[in-house]
Write a structure and sequence with these properties.
Strand content: 5-15%
Shape: globular
Number of helices: 14
Distance between the termini: 15 Å
Bound molecules: alpha-D-glucopyranose
Oligomer: single chain
Helix content: 25-40%
CATH topology of the largest domain: TIM Barrel
Radius of gyration: 23 Å
Largest sheet: 8 strands, parallel
């Protein structure tokens, strides 16, 4: 048999510090966007009691853990990523008691729970920022944030040319003439991570949630906390490219790693296997792997895979690079195709039946890759991006900060359809959801799909069931099989093979799997061909 190996190791060579206890090396984790998941009190906004009411659905789906986007006290200028109190729950989503109950009940359902930590910035309504405004220039209160004097004769120009990720300048001027930095919305002032008070505060926030029993943290904008001490102009472009070597003034700077070494020490004070997952948009695989050194973070989303598109060659290159770089630091890969910031993958891959076929195939491929994987709420229902939200219903600050030029992320955040024939589709008992749901979602509700063995939901359940029952899936390595262009095939063990046909034509089965048992296919397999846009798992005898 002709095979191409990614590196000279045999299948299932244990990774450096792999142990069975490290659940996160193989976990499938479901992202809950709380305001859009389930609305228990009928006010049109999802809430923590809504999450509690659907834990049975999630354990039946077969995920190992849930990650919740922020539910902390927040003026909601960026849907909760602007936190005004890191130790309390926003009244629109529930209470701290609800959060405690949710943590306990998630564990009772046999799942782990990860919460979202937002350390790059606070809300402008956070007590620290309010104190900073009141205390004035040069005060210790201001030193928790990035206040600077402006350029120009009267300081009327921003201190440098940095741009907000949401559009427009990254600086806003306050009444006394100083400027403060915000890499996101003006309502999200950046903290100064060289200030020991900031470091200590976040250690304390970690402990607060660890004491309540959470199993880990997703770290928002993990590559953005450290800024160049001189705050020089950005020269090479606002976003990182694959060539950068740590010289960008505010992304992926070397100084950021010391922060995570401190956090690792905190999390290791706690029993059990708790985990960090970084949101680090770092395209250079070597730089990316640095976050995952053994004394730093455990995992990080692999956005290169998300950005590879529906393309066999690019996907294979990204998979190889990722596994290669992570092997050196002993970390598992973490695959993801959709989240609350990107266009849903059914839509990215072409929409309609073809988009759905490709999306299911990509998901099944992802679930066969070595490491852990994330599922974003609603992808198990095959939901599309909602593109036709009226301007007056839009909520995302990206839309407003770019004057509508960038439409923003509302289209992937529309509240889920659970049941029934019309909006709110069981999202809540009544009420107008905070973003409008398309009228044609009746056939896509969880209830409708649960009753249909050919539905996308049934496919996700089956894929997760097979994954759980196949000990070779999850952490480990893979071995590529030779295939024709447009097809990716790999072994996860002597008997388990995954084959993805990225083309829109049927393709002959690779020789290795002719006659093998089909364990699961994202599209019906007919004879000796792979259906167009499909993934199939085979069990060889
Ligand atoms: C992250 C979040 C995004 C948020 C931003 C600012 O990228 O995923 O939703 O807007 O950080 O906190």
């Amino acid at each position: 048999m002709s095979t191409a190996q990614i590196d000279p190791v045999s299948l299932h060579t244990p990774l450096p510090d792999a142990t069975a206890e490290q659940w996160w090396r193989s976990a499938v984790i479901y992202q809950i966007y709380p305001r859009s998941f389930a609305d228990a009190n009928g006010d049109g906004m999802g809430d923590l009691n809504g999450v509690r009411s659907r834990l049975g659905y999630l354990s039946e789906l077969g995920v190992d853990a849930i990650w919740l986007s922020p539910f902390y006290a927040s003026p909601q200028a960026d849907a909760g990523y602007d936190v005004s109190d890191y130790r309390d729950v926003d009244p629109s989503l529930g209470t701290l008691a609800d959060a405690k109950a949710m943590i306990v009940q998630t564990h009772q359902h046999g799942m782990k729970i990860i919460v979202d930590l937002v350390p790059n910035h606070t809300s402008d309504q956070h007590v620290w920022f309010q104190q900073a405004l009141a205390a004035g220039p040069g005060s210790p209160e201001r030193a928790r944030y990035m206040f600077r004097q402006g350029k120009g004769e009267n300081g009327e120009l921003p201190p440098n040319n940095w741009e907000s990720n949401f559009g427009g300048p990254a600086w806003t001027r306050v009444a006394d003439g100083s400027w403060y930095l915000h890499l996101f919305a003006p309502a999200q002032p950046d903290l100064d991570w060289t200030n020991p008070e900031v470091v200590a505060e976040f250690h304390d926030i970690l402990r607060f949630w660890l004491d309540l029993g959470v199993d880990g943290f997703r770290i928002d904008v993990a590559h953005g906390l450290a800024k160049h001490p001189d705050l020089p102009d950005v020269l090479g472009g606002h976003l990182l490219n694959a060539d950068h070597v740590g010289d960008h003034p505010h992304w992926d700077r070397d100084e950021v790693h010391e922060i995570y070494r401190g956090w690792r020490r905190v999390i290791e004070e706690y029993p059990g296997d708790r985990v960090f997952v970084a949101e680090a948009w770092v395209p250079n695989a070597d730089r990316f792997a640095r976050y995952l050194r053994s004394d730093e973070l455990h995992t990080s989303f692999n956005f290169n895979f998300l950005e590879a598109g529906w393309d066999a060659a690019t996907s294979r290159r990204v998979i190889d690079q990722t596994l290669h770089e992570l092997r050196d630091v002993g970390a598992p890969a973490t695959w993801v195709l959709s989240n609350h910031d990107v266009i849903r993958h059914v839509t990215r891959f072409g929409s309609g039946d073809l988009g759905l076929a490709r999306a299911k195939a990509a998901t099944q491929l992802m679930l066969a890759l070595p490491g852990g994987a994330y599922i974003y709420q609603g992808e198990e229902l095959g939901l599309e991006e909602v593109r036709d939200i009226a301007p007056e219903r839009r909520q995302d600050p990206v839309y407003f900060q770019t004057g509508g030029e960038r439409v923003g992320r509302d289209g992937c955040r529309v509240p889920l359809p659970w049941s029934g024939q019309e909006s709110p589709f069981g999202f809540g008992p009544a009420g107008d959801p905070w973003l409008p749901q398309p009228a044609n979602w009746a056939g896509l509700t969880a209830e409708a799909q649960a009753a249909d063995p050919t539905s996308t939901l049934a496919f996700y359940r089956e894929a997760l069931r097979v994954r759980r029952g196949s000990s070779e899936l999850g952490d480990g390595t893979l071995q590529w099989l030779d295939t024709v262009p447009g097809v990716l095939a790999f072994r996860r063990s002597a008997t388990f093979v995954s084959v993805t046909n990225f083309t829109d034509e049927p393709v002959a089965l690779p020789a290795e799997v002719v006659g093998a048992r089909v364990v699961l296919s994202s599209a019906p397999v007919d004879g000796d061909t792979l259906p167009p846009a499909s993934t199939t798992w085979f069990r060889l005898s």
